[in-house]
Amino acid sequence: MEYNLMNEPWLPAIFGDGRTEWIRPWEIVGDDPPVALNPQRPDFRAALMEFLVGLLQTAFAPESMKARDELLKNPPDRETLRSAFTAHAPYFNLFGERPRFMQDLTMSDADKPVRNGVGALLIEQPGAITLRENKDLFIKRGQLKTLCPACAAAALHTLQAFAPSGGRGNRTSMRGGGPLSTLAVGKTLWESLWLNVSPSKGEPNFKAAPGDDELKTRVYPWMSPTRTSDKNEQVHPDDMHPLHAFWGMPRRIVLRETDATAPCDICGRTHPVAVREFLSRPNGYNYGPEWVHPLTPYTIEEGKPPLSIKGRSNIEAYGNWLGVVYGEPDGKRFMRPARCVRNARRQSRKVNVAGYDMDNAKAREWCEHLFPIIPVEGDTAAFSRDVNNMVTAADQVRRILVGTLKDALVNEAGKNQAKIDSDLFKNTGNRFWSETEAAFYECAAKLAALPDNDEDLAERDALRLAWGGRLLRAAKTLFEDAAGRIGIPPERMKRYVDARSQLIAFTIKKLRDMEMHPQKEIQ
Amino acid sequence: MTLTDALKDDGFSKTVEAWWHSLENDRGQRAELRRARSRTEAYVSPAYRNGLAKKLAKFKLSEPDLERLALAAGVLANARTLCKGHFAAVFAREGKGSPDMRDVRFRKLLAVGDDEYDELYGVLVRFVRMCDGKASLGGLIRDTRHWNDAARMQWATEYYPNRPKA
């Protein structure tokens, strides 16, 4: 059975009139271009977007930023894309003779591979241990038995791109388990993809269109025998081509295709071929810590390898916005945006961030959020410093708020046992972020609109004070709400009043230190 | 006009103060108000109707508001000196006994149940005595209109920071 990902219509795309159609990779452009991908699952969407960005980067990279910007508004025609992509068709067979896309080249019966139900391809599905211990409480086993080739390909790529840790020798993706994928968003599918493609000249060098040899040995890992890691051997960026970042293959997997007896359990379509199980072996590519994926932000720390940002439940908090979009100010430890976002800041107004919040092999949550990009008029470094201060101040005030709330509500004896993250405190902390979010973006937008000169100093001061005032107000309201709404017995009233005046005093002091509260008049 | 709106009017508290000073020359009215043992008694007393209620006629307060205001009238009739600041702060500074004793008494005030105005009246009159006849308009009307958690919190916020450090 032939199923080639360059020739089959396997990508669900949504069009301007709202209809969904399955398209071939080169059909992302055309007279009536799709506006976005629209698979059944959000993790598929993130992974398929990365697939297409990687494909464009590998097979159709622009030489310079100028060349990229020209193609952004004037997309290539289908024929151009088709010839660029079909040149790579031999590397994208899903079934048939190996090599096959994202599947191990040499695994044979002699390796004693493990047979898995196809559900195990999906990150949130219960793993072997959960099944053995009968712990599949929320996501039950056996709901996914049959996948059509399109969904199987999407699931396979999703797993390889976001692979979580999970048992000995089950390697994580090169960005760790459940990495955060950040992609700049445009008006059409083409824009949303092309914005994230980097020019082939530049650092690190993606070198457009590597030759066949290089593609086979250093870009597409499934074209060569897997570099196994039975003894924890690592694969470093120097061993591979930079483009390999898009095609990481931490898991050794071979899909088993059979005749279909039921429709696909994900998309519901019928296809003559189905995937019901796959073979796997541990100890696939074990990526060293030096890899920097172009679509993911990293924390940079002096003397340490870069650390990728992972999906996490509070990813939409505005505290992450600066790091994801502009980068935190250089320092001992700071967040640097993904390369694709840095390259797209001028033309795009939004960044979509998405990723699994993983607890080892257990998926806690799929997190996705759309961050705005505000064009910065003046110096980005100064802007980033100011915004960073705003976030720091907010975080400090939140801490004071939660701390004094604890003083107000927990008696002396229980104070040490009360965890600061127990529900009430945590919820109040979270509400503090959401309460101040609108004001934050408003303030940041005003900051971004300021040019750099001496005249705007007064305005910057005013914005800082406004922000400080907002924080103080939010802290007071939330404090009264959390501590006062249940009624306070007379014997606890004193603690409440003391805690409240501490909240105000500490907050004002902190804000004064950051020049976000009017300084005391000097008599 | 509602009591809440009237309180925002500068003239309102001036009128109340003027009425309190006038008690000096109207011992009969004062004695009658002092005899009231509850807000209700103060409210229905002729002294209140012909005194403060009449003086505030131009604010056209409704009967429920006049009833609320009667508490302040009765408490003030027991005062010999009018101080500045919140009543709770005055009590924190001037109350008789050790600070710890004052805390206990203050908690009695906080323990008055929601909308138990007659009990509240008694506690506040005792506060005036414990302060050697000192009282204050601050908060006395505003924070007794509706006796609930918000009011208690107001009193506490004024009381605790103002008590002398033992």
Proportion of residues in extended strands of chain A: 5-15%
> Helical segment tally of chain B?
11
* Share of helix of chain A, binned: 25-40%
| Largest sheet report of chain B | 2 strands, parallel
- Please count the beta strands of chain B (DSSP E, at least 2 residues each): 2
**What amount of the residues of chain B lies in strands?**
5-15%
The whole-number mean of residue pLDDT values of chain A reads 90
Give the helix/strand class of chain B. mainly alpha
The total count of strands of chain A amounts to 12
Note the run of SSEs of chain A as H and E. Answer: EEEHHHEHHEHHEEEEHEHEEHHHH
Largest interchain contact: A-B, 13 and 14 residues
- Give the overall form of chain B: globular
User: Helical region count of chain A?
Assistant: 13
CA(first)-CA(last) distance of chain B: 45 Å
Give helix % range of chain B.
55-70%
- The residue ranges of chain B in which pLDDT falls below 50 over 5 or more consecutive positions are none
Low-confidence stretches of chain A: none
Q: What is the CA-based Rg of chain B, rounded?
A: 15 Å
Report the radius of gyration of chain A as a whole number of Å. 26 Å
Q: Assign the structural class of chain A, choosing from mainly alpha, mainly beta, alpha/beta, alpha+beta, or little secondary structure.
A: alpha+beta
Architecture overview:
The complex is a heterodimer of chains A (523) and B (166). With 523 residues, chain A is α+β, with helices and mostly antiparallel strands. Helix content of chain A is 36%, strand content 13%. Chain A is built from 13 helices and twelve strands. Chain A has helices at residues 42-59, 65-73, 78-86, 128-132, 149-162, 189-194, 212-219, 321-325, 339-344, 380-409, 423-449, 457-484, 490-513, and strands at residues 11-14, 20-23, 36-37, 114-117, 181-185, 252-259, 273-281, 298-301, 307-308, 333-336, 350-359, 362-372. In chain A, strands 2-1-3 form a three-stranded antiparallel β-sheet. In chain A, strands 4-7-6 form a three-stranded antiparallel β-sheet, with no helix packed on it. In chain A, a hairpin with a 5-residue loop joins β8 and β9. In chain A, α10 packs antiparallel against α11, α11 runs antiparallel to α12 and α12 packs antiparallel against α13 (490-513). Chain B is mainly alpha-helical. Chain B is built from eleven helices and two strands; from the N terminus they run αααααααβαααβα. Chain B has helices spanning 3-8, 10-22, 27-35, 39-44, 46-50, 52-55, 63-77, 87-94, 99-110, 117-130, 149-159; strands spanning 81-86, 134-138. In chain B, strands 1-2 form a two-stranded parallel ribbon. In chain B, α8 packs across α11. The relative contact order of chain B is 0.16. The model of chain B has no long low-confidence stretch (mean pLDDT 89).
